[in-house]
Amino acid sequence: MYEVNSLEAEILSQIREDRLHLNTFMPGNVLSYDSSSQTVDVRPALKRTITSPPSTKNRPDLFDIPVIFPRSSGNAIHIPLKAGDPIGLLFCQRSLDDWKDEGKLTKVTDVRLHDLSDAVAIAGLDINALTLPAPDKLSILSEDGIYIGNPVGKSGSTAGITNVELFEALSKLCDIISSLVLVTPNGPGSIAVSSQTLLSNIQAVFDEIGGNSSIGGN
């Protein structure tokens, strides 16, 4: 043991004080979400504990926090967020100010470490488990429809495919395929359907329901 007023006690006390102000990871809740910039305003979910006098205190709300979504050049998976949604907060080891301006390899001019203002958010952290309709299968769940297509998309309300429209498209594709009669040698009554015709028929299905998927790699 060390003496209360010893140098060792003072050093350990200072280390503990520094650790109490070190931010690493904590849950939070979305206050608002800007889909154009993919940033959120967040309220940290863990209050600060004050030892003297014993009390708790809300941490400050955080604004314009970048959200981490699976993404690469020309590819992305986006999860819509709304007020109240739970989210995870990571606090970067150095200031993000210069990086936010540059978006690439850059200098760091501020010396702060693990600061609340240098948070990034991870969508999906929730202690309340979802009810999965098929727990043993890969699931993509959505209450408001699914968009599958080119990142540029289309203008107007037709850009995107709802769940109902997607199943309608699959049903019509099955109808097209089942209606084909394959060409067999010397087979009377056989109808030859070219691959281009088949692709055109499939494309017409998506055009009809206002989808955005395209045949041919566009």
Walk me through this protein's architecture.
It is a single chain. The protein is α+β, with helices and mostly antiparallel strands and 218 residues long. The chain folds into two domains: 117 residues, Gp5 N-terminal domain (OB fold (Dihydrolipoamide Acetyltransferase, E2P), Beta Barrel), CATH 2.40.50.230; 89 residues, no CATH class. The chain is 24% helix and 21% strand. The chain has a five-stranded mixed barrel with strand order 1-2-5-9-8. Strands 3-4 form a two-stranded antiparallel sheet. A hairpin with a 4-residue loop joins β1 and β2.
Question: Number of helix segments?
Answer: 4
Structural class: alpha+beta
Domains, number: 2
* CATH architecture title of the largest domain: Beta Barrel
**What is Rg?**
27 Å
- CATH topology assignment of the largest domain: OB fold (Dihydrolipoamide Acetyltransferase, E2P)
Question: What are the SSEs and their pairings?
Answer:
Layout: H1 7-20, E1 25-34, E2 39-44, E3 48-51, E4 54-57, E5 62-68, E6 71-72, E7 75-76, E8 86-91, H2 97-102, E9 119-123, H3 163-179, H4 195-209
Parallel strand pairs: 5-9
Antiparallel strand pairs: 1-2, 1-8, 2-5, 3-4, 6-7, 8-9
Helix pairs in contact: 3-4
Annotation keywords:
elongated; 4 helices; two-stranded antiparallel sheet; alpha+beta; disordered C terminus; OB fold (Dihydrolipoamide Acetyltransferase, E2P); 9 strands; five-stranded mixed β-barrel; 24% helix; 218 residues
